[in-house]
Amino acid sequence: GMCDCFDGYDGIACQRMVCPEDCSYRGVCFPERMLASKAGKVYATPWDAPKAVGCVCDVGYRGVACDLEECPSGPDPLGGLGSESGRDCSGRGVCNYDTGVCDCFEDFYGDRCHKQQLPIETA
Q: pTM for the complete prediction?
């Protein structure tokens, strides 16, 4: 007979996990041992090394299923921690992962919140 696998499993004997949402067609599904190798680590001995899987997302996407759209980012315009530290929107805004658009903090603007609006002095 044929196996009817539970959600999240595949294979003749339902022995293999599948990546969530097929990585939303924005990434590639790899077994844990290959993900570890890509990170310069070794994960070959555990029983699940060839069975447990995860997504490697295409550039511009992140999340377990590569379903989150990254926002543009760059260095912090004030010299703090920006994209080089993994911060979205240059560290001066919040990313809307549904749209990939930054919502900049007060006094910052630009597609990656990299510009600062200086206060207008009144005399």
A: 0.77
